[in-house]
Amino acid sequence: MGLRNFLNRRSRSTEVQASSAVAPDAPVEQEPLTAGQLSTEQLEDLDAARAELLQLAAEVGVKSLNACPRDGSRWQDDPATIRTITAVLREAHLEEQRSLADPGPAR
Questions:
Q1: Does a structural domain hold residue 16?
Q2: Domain tally for the chain?
Q3: In sequence order, what are the residues at sequence separation of 6 or more whose Cβ sits closer than 8 angstroms to the Cβ of residue 89?
Q4: Residue 72: left (phi > 0), alpha (psi -120 to 50), or beta?
Q5: How many Cα atoms within 13 Å fall on the side-chain side of residue 1?
Q6: pLDDT one-digit tens code per residue, 23-35
Protein backbone atom coordinates (compact mmCIF):
# COMPACT_ATOMS: atom_id res chain seq x y z
CA MET A 1 0.00 0.00 0.00
CA GLY A 2 1.45 3.34 -1.01
CA LEU A 3 1.45 6.50 1.08
CA ARG A 4 -1.37 8.03 -1.02
CA ASN A 5 -3.58 4.98 -0.46
CA PHE A 6 -2.78 4.98 3.25
CA LEU A 7 -3.71 8.66 3.65
CA ASN A 8 -6.91 8.32 1.64
CA ARG A 9 -7.99 5.10 3.32
CA ARG A 10 -11.17 5.30 5.34
CA SER A 11 -11.76 3.40 8.49
CA ARG A 12 -14.64 0.96 8.29
CA SER A 13 -15.57 1.59 11.92
CA THR A 14 -16.01 5.31 11.23
CA GLU A 15 -18.40 4.59 8.40
CA VAL A 16 -20.39 2.20 10.56
CA GLN A 17 -20.55 4.67 13.44
CA ALA A 18 -21.67 7.49 11.16
CA SER A 19 -24.38 5.41 9.52
CA SER A 20 -25.69 4.07 12.82
CA ALA A 21 -25.98 7.46 14.47
CA VAL A 22 -29.49 8.27 15.58
CA ALA A 23 -30.82 11.76 15.09
CA PRO A 24 -31.77 13.43 18.39
CA ASP A 25 -35.39 14.14 19.14
CA ALA A 26 -36.62 17.53 18.08
CA PRO A 27 -36.59 20.01 20.96
CA VAL A 28 -39.89 20.43 22.71
CA GLU A 29 -41.05 24.00 22.97
CA GLN A 30 -42.17 24.74 26.50
CA GLU A 31 -44.09 27.74 27.68
CA PRO A 32 -42.42 29.81 30.38
CA LEU A 33 -43.44 28.80 33.86
CA THR A 34 -45.89 31.12 35.53
CA ALA A 35 -46.56 31.81 39.17
CA GLY A 36 -49.65 29.60 39.00
CA GLN A 37 -47.58 26.56 37.97
CA LEU A 38 -45.07 26.86 40.82
CA SER A 39 -45.48 26.50 44.54
CA THR A 40 -44.48 29.42 46.73
CA GLU A 41 -41.23 27.70 47.74
CA GLN A 42 -40.33 26.91 44.13
CA LEU A 43 -41.07 30.47 43.07
CA GLU A 44 -38.92 31.87 45.90
CA ASP A 45 -36.08 29.47 44.98
CA LEU A 46 -36.31 30.51 41.32
CA ASP A 47 -36.28 34.20 42.25
CA ALA A 48 -33.28 33.69 44.55
CA ALA A 49 -31.34 31.84 41.84
CA ARG A 50 -32.11 34.57 39.31
CA ALA A 51 -31.03 37.26 41.80
CA GLU A 52 -27.71 35.44 42.37
CA LEU A 53 -27.06 35.29 38.63
CA LEU A 54 -27.99 38.93 38.06
CA GLN A 55 -25.81 40.09 40.95
CA LEU A 56 -22.79 38.13 39.73
CA ALA A 57 -23.35 39.26 36.14
CA ALA A 58 -23.35 42.89 37.29
CA GLU A 59 -20.16 42.37 39.35
CA VAL A 60 -18.34 40.63 36.52
CA GLY A 61 -19.57 42.96 33.79
CA VAL A 62 -21.59 40.47 31.74
CA LYS A 63 -23.87 42.35 29.38
CA SER A 64 -25.79 39.41 27.92
CA LEU A 65 -26.08 35.68 28.39
CA ASN A 66 -27.25 33.04 25.95
CA ALA A 67 -27.61 29.42 26.98
CA CYS A 68 -29.30 26.55 25.21
CA PRO A 69 -29.98 23.24 26.96
CA ARG A 70 -29.92 20.08 24.90
CA ASP A 71 -33.44 19.00 25.74
CA GLY A 72 -35.09 22.21 24.57
CA SER A 73 -36.28 23.21 28.02
CA ARG A 74 -36.04 26.78 29.26
CA TRP A 75 -32.99 27.21 31.49
CA GLN A 76 -34.51 30.40 32.88
CA ASP A 77 -37.19 28.33 34.64
CA ASP A 78 -34.87 25.88 36.42
CA PRO A 79 -33.15 27.09 39.62
CA ALA A 80 -30.53 24.32 39.49
CA THR A 81 -29.54 25.28 35.95
CA ILE A 82 -29.38 28.97 36.86
CA ARG A 83 -27.13 28.16 39.82
CA THR A 84 -24.91 26.00 37.63
CA ILE A 85 -24.52 28.83 35.12
CA THR A 86 -23.75 31.19 38.01
CA ALA A 87 -21.07 28.83 39.32
CA VAL A 88 -19.47 28.46 35.88
CA LEU A 89 -19.49 32.22 35.38
CA ARG A 90 -17.98 32.77 38.85
CA GLU A 91 -15.24 30.19 38.26
CA ALA A 92 -14.39 31.65 34.84
CA HIS A 93 -14.13 35.12 36.35
CA LEU A 94 -11.91 33.90 39.20
CA GLU A 95 -9.66 32.05 36.76
CA GLU A 96 -9.36 35.18 34.64
CA GLN A 97 -8.46 37.23 37.70
CA ARG A 98 -5.83 34.66 38.73
CA SER A 99 -4.27 34.68 35.28
CA LEU A 100 -4.11 38.48 35.24
CA ALA A 101 -2.52 38.56 38.71
CA ASP A 102 0.01 35.83 37.94
CA PRO A 103 3.11 37.39 36.34
CA GLY A 104 4.06 34.07 34.80
CA PRO A 105 7.40 32.28 34.94
CA ALA A 106 10.50 34.38 35.57
CA ARG A 107 12.95 34.54 32.71
A1: no
A2: 1
A3: 53, 56, 57, 60, 62
A4: left
A5: 6
A6: 444 444 555 555 5
Q: With respect to residue 20, please indicate whether it lies within any of the assigned structural domains.
A: no
Question: Could you tell me if 76 and 38 are in contact, meaning their C-beta atoms sit under 8 angstroms apart?
Answer: no
Amino acid at 51: A
Lowest mean pLDDT among 26-30, 54-58, 86-90: 26-30
Residues making up the chain, counted from first to last: 107
User: Contact at 8 Å (CB) between 51 and 39?
Assistant: no
The distance in angstroms from the start CA to the end CA of the chain is: 49
Nearest residue to 34 via CA among 74, 85, 80: 74
Quote the pTM value: 0.61
| DSSP H/E element including 18 | helix 12-19
